[in-house]
């Protein structure tokens, strides 16, 4: 997935699938982040930062959390429940406002607003067999946890 994001960032902005909102995306992996009210440091899979934000505006920051689960074995209700739980965790740990712990990124400041959290499940053989149940579980998770986009690769 990181390779896909790096390839997407290299495309002209209009051709990008994932990073269209960025002018010059910087992709950082396994970034330590802390949040007020959450003990310890967590490591977000990918943090995308706008390297050239518009003058006077803070850099756009988005987080990506990747999940490799086998939801093909879950019934519809359990699938929706698992996606909602994963979305809540993604928002709790990697959304809203973060304190980024990587020294080279300290220029972002002590409280960095995250504009979007994307929760991406591995697809292929792990993708649920029923596309309708999958769509419904994604919609339920996104409606239940505002600010998290749920996708299956």
Task: Provide tags for this entry.
153 residues; alpha/beta; seven-stranded mixed sheet; 3 helices; 7 strands; globular
Walk me through the structure.
With 153 residues, the chain is α/β, with parallel strands linked by helices. It has one domain (29-152). 27% of the residues lie in helices and 31% in strands. The protein has helices spanning 2-10, 76-94, 131-144; strands at residues 25-35, 38-50, 61-67, 97-100, 112-113, 116-121, 148-152. It is globular and about 45 Å long. The model has no long low-confidence stretch (mean pLDDT 92).
Largest sheet: 7 strands, mixed
Global mean pLDDT = 92
- The stretches of 5 or more residues where confidence is low (pLDDT under 50) are none
| Number of structural domains | 1
As laid out across the biggest beta sheet, the strand order is: 5-4-1-2-3-6-7
* DSSP, total strands: 7
Query: Percent of residues in beta strands?
Result: 25-35%
The gross shape turns out to be globular
Order of helices and strands: HEEEHEEEHE
CA-CA gap between termini: 9 Å
**Share of helical residues:** 25-40%
Q: Report the structural category.
A: alpha/beta
User: Rg to the nearest angstrom?
Assistant: 16 Å
- Count every helix, treating DSSP H or I runs of 4 or more residues as helices: 3
């Amino acid at each position: 997935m990181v390779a896909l994001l790096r390839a997407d960032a290299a495309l002209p902005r209009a051709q990008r699938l994932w990073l269209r909102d960025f002018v010059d995306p910087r992709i950082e992996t396994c970034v330590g982040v802390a949040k007020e009210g959450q003990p310890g440091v967590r490591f977000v899979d990918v943090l995308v930062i706008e390297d050239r934000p518009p003058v006077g505006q803070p850099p756009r920051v988005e987080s990506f959390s990747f999940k490799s689960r086998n939801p093909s074995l879950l019934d519809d209700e359990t699938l929706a429940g698992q996606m909602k739980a994963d979305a809540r965790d993604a928002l709790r740990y990697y959304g809203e406002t973060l304190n980024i712990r990587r020294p080279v990124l300290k220029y972002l400041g002590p409280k960095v607003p995250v504009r979007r959290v994307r929760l991406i499940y591995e697809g292929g053989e792990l993708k649920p067999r029923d596309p309708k149940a999958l769509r419904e579980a994604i919609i339920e998770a996104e409606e239940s946890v505002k600010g998290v986009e749920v996708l299956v690769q």
